Amino acid sequence: MSQRLRVVWIGGRGFHSSYGGVENAIRELARASTEFSDIEPWVTGKGNAGWFQLGQADGVRLLSAPKWLGGFGHALCTLGLMLYVIVRIRPDTVFLFASGPSLLSVVGRALGAYTVACLRAIDSQRDGWRGINQKILQMGEYAATHIAHRCTVNSLAMQRFFAAKGLDTVYIPNGITALAEPLPGYLESLGLEPDRYLLYAGRLDPVKRLDVLLDAHRQLPESSRPTLVVAGGKCKSAAYQKKLEEMASDEVLFLGHVGQREISTLMGRCSLFVLPSVLEGMSNSLLTAMGAGRCVLCANVPENADVVAGDPRVLFEADDVQALKRQLLVHLQQAHRRSEVAEAVRGLATHYSWSRSAEAFCRLAREGREQ
C-alpha cells in the first residue's frame, strides 16, 4: 500500500471551535475523512502554548498555533500555520477554507503544495466589509479561482456565479450534522415549551438580517406571539448589537453563544427555524434543521432556494419584513402545514452527507498526487 496522503485543512480557528460554519465544516469533513484508509487528515487552529503543538482527536491530527501568534489576529495566525505546515508537516494537499485564507494559495503553490481553495460564500460582498478588508477578500477570491490548483464551492449559486465569468469550480455541498443528545431540563430552565418557540441560530452579523426577523416578530399579534430564541454570539458592531436589543420585543430571548448540546436541544424542539440571512454559501444551520425534521423559513436567495428546491412554503422575499411576517402567521396558525413542510425538507436533507462530501474532497487530494 502506498503512503497515506497527508491532507491539511487550514482557515478555521481549530478543531474544537464552534465559531462558525467554516469551523463546523472543517471538523465534520476531517472526521469523515478518517473513513478512508489512504488519507491522513490534519486540522490547524489557534492554541494556548508557547510554540506549535501537535495533538489528536477522533482520529484527526491537530496542529495548534502558539498563543502569541494568535494574538496577531486570525489572518497572520493562518499565515504562520500555513508556513509551518508546509515546512514541517510537508502535506500532500492543503485545503484553504474561506475567501481570506484562500489568498494563501499563492504561498501554497510557490512552496510546492497541491493547493485547493474552498470558498464558503462570496465574502467580499458581506455588509460591513469596505476598503482594504474588502480588497483582501476580493484578492482571496481571485487567488482561489485563478491561482489555486482547484477551487471548490459549497453552493450551486456560487458555481453559477463563477461559471458566468468563465471560471471552473468544483461543487461540494455541506453535509448534515446530527443533533447531539438533548440536555434534560434545558428548555424548562429557559421557560420554553416544545414546539412553541421560534429559533434563530447564527452570528449576530448584519448580513444575517436578524433585524428583519426581530421586526417581523414584533409585528405578530401580541396575544399569540411565540418566544423567539436567538442563539448566537455578540456582534462585532456595538451599534448593530444595540439596534437589535432595542428592536426586540419582550418575547425575545438572547442566549448568546451556546454549546452543542444546548443548540441541539433547541433545534430539535422548535416550532420554526428561521434563517433571514441574505448572504450564504450553504447554511449548516439550515441543513441541520432540515435533517432534524423541523419546519424552516429562509430568505429567498439562490443559495437557500437551491437547498429547499424552491419550495414557496419555505421561502420569503429577502429583506422584506412583511413577507416574513405573512409566512410566520401562516405557519403559526396551521400546525398541519408545519408538519407537511418538516416532512418535505427532511426528505430533501437526505441528499446531503458529510461522508459523501469528504469523499469528494479526498478525491481531489488523490488527483493532486497524480499530477
Fold and architecture overview:
The protein is 43% helix and 18% strand. By secondary structure, the chain is of the alpha/beta class. The chain has 2 domains: 5-175 and 353-370, Glycogen Phosphorylase B (Rossmann fold, 3-Layer(aba) Sandwich), CATH 3.40.50; 186-349, 3-Layer(aba) Sandwich (Rossmann fold). Strand 13, helix 13 and strand 14 form a beta-alpha-beta unit. The model has no long low-confidence stretch (mean pLDDT 93).
Task: Write a compact overview of the structure shown.
The protein is built from 16 helices and 14 strands. With 371 residues, it is an alpha/beta fold.
Task: Chart the SSEs and their pairings.
Layout: E1 5-10, H1 21-33, E2 39-46, E3 53-57, E4 60-65, H2 67-70, H3 74-89, E5 93-97, H4 99-102, H5 105-110, E6 114-119, H6 131-146, E7 150-153, H7 156-163, E8 170-171, H8 186-189, E9 197-201, H9 210-218, E10 227-231, H10 238-247, E11 252-256, H11 260-269, E12 272-275, H12 284-291, E13 296-299, H13 302-307, E14 315-316, H14 321-333, H15 335-349, H16 354-370
Parallel strand pairs: 1-2, 1-5, 2-4, 5-6, 6-7, 7-8, 9-10, 9-12, 10-11, 12-13, 13-14
Antiparallel strand pairs: 3-4
Helix pairs in contact: 1-16, 9-14, 12-15
